[in-house]
Automatic annotation (TrEMBL):
Entry protein name: Bifunctional uridylyltransferase/uridylyl-removing enzyme
Activation/inhibition comment: Uridylyltransferase (UTase) activity is inhibited by glutamine, while glutamine activates uridylyl-removing (UR) activity.
InterPro entries in the record: ACT-like_dom_sf, ACT_dom, HD/PDEase_dom, HD_domain, NT_sf, PII_UdlTrfase/GS_AdlTrfase, Polymerase_NTP_transf_dom, UTase/UR
UniProt keywords, alphabetically: Hydrolase, Magnesium, Multifunctional enzyme, Nucleotidyltransferase, Repeat, Transferase
Signal peptide: none
Domain HD: start-end pairs: 524-646
EC number(s) per entry: 2.7.7.59, 3.1.4.-
Cofactor(s) listed in the protein's UniProt record: Mg(2+)
One GO BP: regulation of nitrogen utilization
Free-text comment on this protein's domains from its UniProt entry: Has four distinct domains: an N-terminal nucleotidyltransferase (NT) domain responsible for UTase activity, a central HD domain that encodes UR activity, and two C-terminal ACT domains that seem to have a role in glutamine sensing.
Any one Gene Ontology molecular-function term assigned to this protein's record: phosphoric diester hydrolase activity
Similarity remark: Belongs to the GlnD family.
Organism of derivation: Bosea lupini
Function comment: Modifies, by uridylylation and deuridylylation, the PII regulatory proteins (GlnB and homologs), in response to the nitrogen status of the cell that GlnD senses through the glutamine level. Under low glutamine levels, catalyzes the conversion of the PII proteins and UTP to PII-UMP and PPi, while under higher glutamine levels, GlnD hydrolyzes PII-UMP to PII and UMP (deuridylylation). Thus, controls uridylylation state and activity of the PII proteins, and plays an important role in the regulation of nitrogen metabolism.
Length: 962
């Protein structure tokens, strides 16, 4: 907290500090005279230290110091244990934090007594031999988490003296012996005032300074001068600095308060936000206790109760996190969420797991903290703004009437360029005004005055069944949702005020609801609002470079309103026992007519919600070159309009899942599926059409290979089967042709080629080798051993017995040269493995690690064998908990089953892997035998169970060794 180290201020030899940490000087007290207990140190440190000192000869400092450290160590452990019991029994996090602080106070005060009365006593102290030991930072608030730092200020009246140096050293060494993390500074009152003026962090720390022990008059002088020389007249600057600091901190921890692994201390809606609110309020209103904020008019009684509830809950969560991990862990990670939920006592209910109910409570608290932030900012804005003389103040009511007409409704006006109600009864007079407020804000791009947003929250009881059925209210809501100006900010304000969940109760059920997996980054309501924002960007033509197809077809969509409504509702049934797509469609069938949609629009919304995952699933896990895949998808979609709507909805849905989930590769898959299906919907699904497309592709390649002889071109075209021509785009066909020719000229039957693709976010590894069943296993194993994450694989066999595989690996580096070097290492490993120079199984074993989050996630493995999805292949869909080397293990198992893999499609959804293989037996036939299918299913399931058995065995051995 304070940057000047003790070694700088006092000239202490740091080696001595290190030695004290390694070998604490400790001499136990006489066994017949027990050391004082914790209660004695808390109640009367002077008496407790005196009692201990009487067990030793006067002047025996080393023995007393050792006995004191031992006694304080025992008392520190006892204090932590009592704090944990308070947390478990009373379930009050603030009480736990205060207990830990009081225990620390007793330790610091006891060391002060020992240093000033027993180690370095002064009978007639001079004016300079005075010291105040002051808690600052979080400790200054009288609260400590189990793993928190202990921030201390050693305050002196003037220049440091030899006595002062000795006292500080005598207090710090035992604190280090106790393995405490101590942040400390040594300053005079003048130092504090000077540095507090210059440094906002020090100014904030001094704002919360609290005297623990020592010279009270010295501390009172610091407080007086702080108020007069630092705080006076600087509240606006302090507020601005603290809010700017908050923005920086929140951006670093994650800009949304609805991140599914939030930072409880520094994240948006966390404890630091509450601290910031109180710092600003204390600095501006000169209050010492949060309860005084009600008297000051900043909060009403309900809002202050919200402040207290939020603070207690966040402290409860934070203390449990520290106790469970044994360290100062501030990120509420997935593995911690289950443990904290169990510790607090959450149980499952209504289809939600205990951890999901706990996290919903957490996010609702984070939302409350956001509401309190808005309230404080509004109050400070009103307090700090000075009325300016203007024409408006002279012509008064005339200007007021003109503003009313400009806003379109007599119940609304402008206050400081912010939209506000004319008086506090505006919503009571007409509850539709609750919706009308946001309609005007959306239409005129106006910020809503915080006082008015606060009034909305206080008026939510006016949202009755009658208002929900009101035609005008529903018309307004639909206008807000589908506004040409991006509706996301207005919908977000409605959600933060609580109006959105009240007006659409089914949306209210998913507010702050998390999905306990590694795929989704946000709560359900946050995901829905972000998806609407992305849709609006596509609608406005702002994402042409990133989503060229979605951008180009949007203008041709006729059901724009249905698309917005469907996207807003597509996950609204999450958290229910049944399939959320089916339940969501049922909700939409009831809600859409209420919103004013026609029967046809309602049916479109219902269909989109029922099928909102279909296009993504097929694109990522099916062979898009298989005619049966396209025909089946076309049968689901049926019309070109639905295909357009589903494509745009799918893009917005995936992109709103979280950072890094969308990439160019997924975009390419969706575009391929769209274009292939468009042909079928246009009537071009016959074999004649496919034959014509193959011929066109071959002619296009011939034109690109103009430098080849006619005989060379004809021979090359004959090397590929029709599937190759349909699946591979012309640019890559030319690259393949020249790659194969170079390999032939060099006399190589095994070769590799690498190329990066920034737009799609992948790196291509092309492998040429003689065909054999375990080829893909070798390639995937080499990728796994080199740390390559495979996202897809295209596998083609030539008519002369070679295999041309293209493996798509997700990028690891931004720069192409770095990525190419990495890809070349992977390619080299593949070639060496194919030549038998290295053993892939050993390399993969070296890279193996426990699955993500160890025992946090449970994904039941499943194997689906399907002979309907493809006309030529059996489709194996394997899903389960992802881990390094999983794809290698699966392809190895498939190779041992004597199956040929025609194509592989790899998708990962957080902790869940879904890998799909199109296979035949060695004769090229489908797997139709029930007995053979059973053997395949058991072998692939064993890939997951054997790994779990290995991990369990490893854990057992580790425990036995321990």
């Amino acid at each position: 907290m304070f940057p000047r180290p003790l070694s700088f201020v006092l000239g202490i030899d740091c080696r001595r500090v290190a030695e004290s940490l390694e070998e604490p000087r400790s001499v136990p007290p006489s066994p017949d005279k027990p050391a004082p207990r914790l209660a004695e140190f808390i109640d009367n440190p002077l008496a407790a230290v005196g009692k201990l000192a009487r067990q030793f000869n006067e002047g025996d400092r080393d023995s007393l110091r050792g006995a004191l450290v031992d006694a304080l160590r025992d008392n520190l452990e006892e204090g932590r244990q009592s704090a944990r019991e308070i947390l478990a029994k009373s379930r009050n996090g603030l009480s736990c934090a205060k207990r830990l602080s009081s225990v620390m106070d007793s330790i610091v005060a006891s060391l002060h007594v020992a240093a000033t009365r027993h180690f370095y006593p002064v009978e007639n102290p001079s004016a300079g031999e005075r010291i105040a030991v002051v808690a600052v930072g979080g400790y200054g608030r009288g609260t400590l988490a189990p793993g928190s730092d202990v921030d201390l200020l050693f305050l002196f009246p003037d220049k440091q003296t030899a006595w002062g140096e000795s006292v500080v050293e005598a207090m710090l060494y035992p604190l280090w012996d106790l393995k405490l993390k101590v942040g400390h500074s040594v300053r005079s009152v003048d130092d504090c005032i000077r540095e507090g003026r210059a440094d906002m962090t020090i100014r904030t720390a001094l704002l919360e300074a609290r005297l623990i022990c020592g010279d009270a008059a010295l501390f009172a002088d610091l407080q007086r001068r702080y108020g007069a020389e630092i705080a006076e007249g600087t509240a606006p600057a302090f507020t601005e600095a603290k809010l700017a600091e908050r923005e920086t901190r929140v951006a670093r921890a994650g800009s949304s308060r609805y991140l599914v692994e939030p930072n409880v201390k520094d994240g948006k809606g966390g404890l630091r936000d509450l601290n910031t609110l109180f710092w600003i309020a204390k600095y501006s209103y000169r209050v010492d206790d949060p309860a005084e904020l009600v008297e000051a008019g900043l909060f009403d009684a309900r809002e202050f109760a919200m402040f207290q509830r939020s603070e207690e809950f966040l402290w409860r969560v934070r203390c449990w996190m520290h106790f469970i991990t044994g360290r100062a862990e501030e990120r509420l990670s997935f593995d911690l969420q289950r443990q904290v939920a169990a510790a607090i006592g959450y149980a499952g209910r209504s289809g939600q797991a205990p951890v999901e109910r706990f996290m919903k409570a957490y996010f609702l608290v984070a939302k409350d903290v956001g509401d309190l932030t808005a309230i404080v900012c509004a109050a400070l804005e009103a307090r700090q703004q000075k009325p300016r003389a203007s024409l408006t103040s002279l012509i008064g009511s005339f200007t007021k009437r003109r503003r009313v007409r400009a806003l379109g409704h007599p119940d609304f006006t402008l206050r400081g360029q912010r939209l506000a109600v004319i008086d506090d009864d505006a919503f009571k007079r007409d509850p539709v005004n609750l919706l009308r407020l946001y309609e005007i804000a959306s239409r005129d791009d106006l910020a809503i005055h915080p006082d008015t947003s606060r009034l909305v929250t206080q008026s939510l009881r006016l949202v009755t069944p009658q208002l929900r059925q009101d035609r005008e209210a529903n018309r307004i809501f639909l206008e807000i949702l589908t506004a040409r100006r991006s509706p996301e900010p207005v919908l977000r304000r409605m959600n933060e005020s609580g109006l959105l969940g009240r007006f659409i109760p089914d949306f209210g059920r998913v507010v702050a609801m998390m999905q306990f997996n590694m795929y989704h980054h946000y709560t359900v309501d946050e995901h829905l609002l972000r998806s609407i924002g992305i849709l609006a960007e596509i609608d406005g033509g702002k994402l042409e470079a990133e989503h060229p197809l979605a951008n180009s077809i949007f203008a041709t969509i006729t059901n724009r309103r249905a698309l917005y409504v469907a996207l807003f509702l597509h996950d609204i049934a999450k958290g229910r026992p049944e399939d959320h797509s089916v339940a969501g469609a049922r909700i939409a069938r009831k809600l859409c007519p209420r919103l004013g949609l026609t029967d046809a629009q309602t049916e479109t919304v219902v269909w989109l919600i029922e099928n909102h995952l279909v296009m993504s699933t097929i694109a990522q896990s099916r062979d898009l070159g298989d005619p049966k895949t396209i025909e089946s998808f076309a049968g689901i979609v049926q019309t070109l309009e639905r295909l357009k709507l589903l494509l745009v909805l799918t893009v917005a849905d995936i992109k709103a899942v979280g950072p890094g989930v969308w990439n160019g590769w997924k975009g390419q898959l969706l575009r391929t599926l769209y274009y292939e299906t468009e042909v079928v919907l246009a009537g071009g699904h016959s074999g004649i059409e496919r034959k014509a497309r193959v011929e066109r592709k071959q002619q296009a390649l011939e034109a690109r290979l103009a430098d080849w002889t006619e005989e060379e071109r004809a021979a090359y075209l004959a090397r590929h089967y029709p599937a190759y021509w349909l699946k591979v785009e012309p640019e890559r066909q030319e690259q393949h042709a020249r790659f194969l020719r170079e390999a032939e000229v060099a006399g190589r039957t095994t070769a590799t080629r690498v190329e990066t693709d920034q737009f799609r976010g992948v790196t291509e590894l092309t492998v040429l080798a003689p065909d054999h069943p375990r080829l893909l296993a070798i390639v995937t194993g080499a990728c796994a051993a080199a740390g390559g994450n495979i996202v897809d694989a295209q596998i083609f066999t030539t008519t002369d017995g070679l295999v041309l595989d293209t493996i798509f690996v997700s990028r690891a580096f931004e720069r192409d040269d770095d990525e190419l070097r990495r890809a070349e290492r992977i390619a080299a490993a593949i070639e060496r493995a194919l030549k038998g120079e290295i053993k892939i199984a050993d390399l993969v074993a070296q890279r193996r690690a426990p699955p993500p989050r160890g025992g946090t996630f449970q994904v039941a493995p499943e194997v689906i064998i399907d002979n309907v999805l493809s006309s030529r292949h059996t489709v194996l869909e394997v899903s389960g908990l992802d881990r390094p080397g999983l794809l290698y293990d699966l392809t190895t198992a498939i190779g041992k089953l004597n199956l040929n893999i025609a194509s592989a499609h790899i998708a990962t959804f957080g902790e869940k892997a879904v890998d799909v293989f199109y296979v035949t037996d060695l004769t090229g036939a489908k797997i139709t035998s029930t007995g053979r299918q059973l053997v395949i299913r058991q072998a692939l399931l064993a890939v997951f169970t054997l790994e779990l058995d290995k991990q369990a065995s490893g854990k057992a051995k580790a425990m036995a060794r321990a």
